Amino acid sequence: MLKSASAYADSRLYAIKAQTLILCSGKDQLLPSQQEGERLRQLLPNCELRKFDDNGHFLFLEGSLDLVTIIKGTSYYRRGKYHDYASDFIPPSRDEANKIIESYSLFNFITSPVMLSTLEDGKIVKGLAGIPSEGPVLLVGNHMLLALDTVSLLSQMYTEQDIIVRGMAHPLMFRRRKRGRLPEVSSFDWLRVMGIFPVTATNLFKLFSSKSHVLLFPGGVREAFHRKGEEYKLFWPEQSEFVRIAARFGAKIIPFGSVGEDDLGQVVIDYDDLVKIPYLRSEIENLTNEAVQLRAGVGGEVENQQVYPPGILPKVPGRFYYYFGKPIETDGRKQELKDKDKSQELYLEVKTEVERCIAYLKEKRESDPYRSILTRSLYQATHAPTSDIPTFEI
């Protein structure tokens, strides 16, 4: 009878259209939780699965699990029929943010990020004092390899300025065309807790309306999965994608550059090498097809958004550097920037400023006595562990 009832229920699970979240344990001694979770995910049409490999049967009785954080990370909280990434966003609690930042403490120790910003009078200062505390603000910069720059940027903005930066992210961090070999969407839950959202004009419009700080990498996937010798090369669309929306809300645009990926590793096998092997070319196509595609038909290199695993030769870790240029005002320029040529002119100004910031950092880091992790480790061994590590003179 039990088998019959179970089969009857299973045969009707496909009809459940409600959004469903399944939590399953990895060390459940009473039930095969993970196997059952996978089975139900296959049957329920609108289902997300989250696995907790180190937890037992009584998930909610274990102190390491926070259901509210899980709901935030899966974007399941909503006030209306669908989740709104602007109005339904609940900022992380201090405890949530600190736990996330702490989980990346080793990465931040290895890269020891240096933050520079520019005040209204043009003076460059160490730290993020040049970032306006009130929005709307649009931070526009380059992506380093595999988007490694995001971790340090979000954590430093929060710890130093108490600013939650809403990062515009590729849809592959939220959904897939199909399941395959890409990392599970759950890998990016922590980013959703910290406020990332799918890159769309509508979402950008809503976030500027709420006076948010927004982070944009116009080069997107093409820069994050760049080829050999393309470090710090910008792959931006030919036409402006953000200037007129920023001007509509009077958002300050802050161009920035980031460098340091070439001090962590060097790309020795890239897309051009891998596609020469038929099997690997097929695998790359499969990976790319799993992700939702952006900018199809826009032309140029930015349209090439192949997702592939680059071969990277590790190095003795160096340091990450970020330089935020002087804020560019758009307040009061709404009518002016409706003109396509004027908008394009400002777009190119932002791009040129990002390139200038990158060039500045590449030059200045050569004089940083603590660029290597070896000298930084020696410094920390002779000073307080939490003391700031010096860098080059500005």
Automatic annotation (TrEMBL):
Biological process (GO), any one: triglyceride biosynthetic process
Similarity comment: family membership: Belongs to the diacylglycerol acyltransferase family.
Subcellular location per the Swiss-Prot or TrEMBL entry: Endoplasmic reticulum membrane
SUPFAM superfamilies to which the protein is assigned, alphabetical: alpha/beta-Hydrolases
Catalytic activity, EC: 2.3.1.-
Predominant location category: endoplasmic reticulum
Name this polypeptide is given: Acyltransferase
InterPro entries the UniProt entry points to: AB_hydrolase_fold, DAGAT
Record keyword Endoplasmic reticulum present: yes
GO molecular function: diacylglycerol O-acyltransferase activity
CDD domains with a match to the protein in the record: LPLAT_MGAT-like
Assigned keywords, A-Z: Acyltransferase, Endoplasmic reticulum, Transferase
Membrane-protein topology: Multi-pass membrane protein
Pfam families referenced in this protein's UniProt entry, alphabetically: DAGAT (PF03982)
Organism of origin: Pisum sativum (Garden pea)
GO cellular component, one term: endoplasmic reticulum membrane
Record has Endoplasmic reticulum as a keyword: yes
Enzyme superclass (EC): transferase
